[in-house]
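REQUEST FORM: STRUCTURE PREDICTION
Request ID: SP-0412
Submitted by: Lab K.M.
Chain count: 1
Length (residues): 319
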Amino acid sequence: MECTIKGNRMNAAEALNSRLSIPGQLVFREGTDGLVFADIDNAHAVASLCLQGGHLTSWRPKDQDRPVVWLSEAARFARGKSIRGGVPVCWPWFGPHATEAGWPAHGYARTVDWEVTDTRALDGGETEIALALVENAQTRAQWPHASRLEILVTVGRSLKLILITTNLGDHDFVIGEALHTYFQVGDIADVRVTGLEGCEYLDKVEGFARRREVGAIAFAGETDRVYVDTEAECVIEDARLGRRIRVAKSGSRSTVVWTPWTEKAEKMGDFGPGEAGPGGTSRGGWRQMLCVESANALDNAVTVLAGATHRMTVEYRVE
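STATUS: Completed
RESULT:
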């Protein structure tokens, strides 16, 4: 986006700042490869959001020494490429496309431009920013349905995200979706997740075998599970950092829990070196993250009726 004022060309960040910045709370800046970011710094927290993908890249409440949302040190910021870390938006399908192997995994929403539609300073000191996905020839070819996708992000002591799908057409359609959040942890071996006890899950590491969770989830190897038919709140208990991250959601019937572990992380190549382990050896950046994703996936794909709106909401809070 470019515009001209008094004969001078403004870049996209400057144009946004002229209309939508919030003094003392929110400013837009241009980063690598022309990508534009919204940087938020209010009384409660600091956060950044990349307009490509509507992708929140970081969030740290000011009472925390370490970020809560993890971003890889090796994350690549490039046009049309997904960012390793933060909160990628998976939409309008989850995982590989059902029939088109060449189309992007988890849909196109995380790699195309979004536009800022509103910003607000709330009475409690929180900052709100709203964005909408910008359609192009690629998106229309891969999703030939009249629709609108928006995300509303509220940054404060908690982080709240609402993913909003509106069916603008005259026929129903089915979506898969997820807020693919990467959380900062001290070390994955010292983390467990509670709240999903008794839930059924599909184990992607074991060929989508269907199992039932017995107790708290602990990690000793690659884990990739889609917990289905659950709206349960869950908690990431982090012994190393001495904190609990509470994940509360609505409009979501699936929860995905994922850590790649050593071999898969090395193949993916953008997890970064991580912190030094014993003797100065690298422990791998993947050891400091865990994905707990609020989703509607596999068994829980959502039918959005003609003219209707579906909302998936998640809120993160640190204890």
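NOTES: The first strand starts at residue 3 and ends at 5.
Reviewed by: T.R.
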